[in-house]
# Entry
Amino acid sequence: MKKMLILIMAGLALLLFSCASPPEQPVQPEQPVQPEQPVDTRAPLPEKELAEAKSLKTRVDNNGLSEFALENYQQAEKSLQDGEAAYGKDNAKAKTALDAAIASYRTVISKAFPLKVDRSKAEVDTIKANAESIKAQVAMKSEYAAAKAKYDEAVAAKDAGNFEQAISLFAEDKTLFQNVYEKTKVKKEAAEAEIKSSQDGLKDAEDRAKAGDEEMQGGGQ
# Structure
């Protein structure tokens, strides 16, 4: 009887222990490793398109053309980024994007170059007119002639459609005319100061002569 009681108590203890234990957690399956995206070998790398798009971008940036056709420039930049991102992964997609970038950069060039040249010429025209207004063509004859020759060369390049050359020539000529204007201004101010000094000296001499005459007249009375 005592042995039976011990067995019953042991069974109850085992039952209580099994109820208090937390349930086993299910084993989480391992996440499968995502395979790398295969390189698209069906289409060749658009190396020529990438080089041309970058070359056109450099031309646009070096000449400061983006502000004259900003929307087209932004489209070109986006397409170039897309092309570079797909390059070597999806070559067909990369080529399509790079072709779009090339077309947009060419649009920027065709739209912006004439506008940039016109602005460059207008800037030189302003300085040229300022120089001529103070007679730079007379005061700085040789320097003015050199600036005018450069101006004529720039205008000829513009009229011939050689926009990059025209922009470069106008930039040089802007400096030339600015120097002519500054030097002429200095000479003009120096000449005006000399004239004023002479006039002041003449007036002083006249005043002294007048004072002497008045003194002589006063002494003769």
In short: The helical segments are 2-20, 47-62, 70-86, 91-133, 136-139, 141-159, 163-219. The first helix runs from residue 2 to 20.
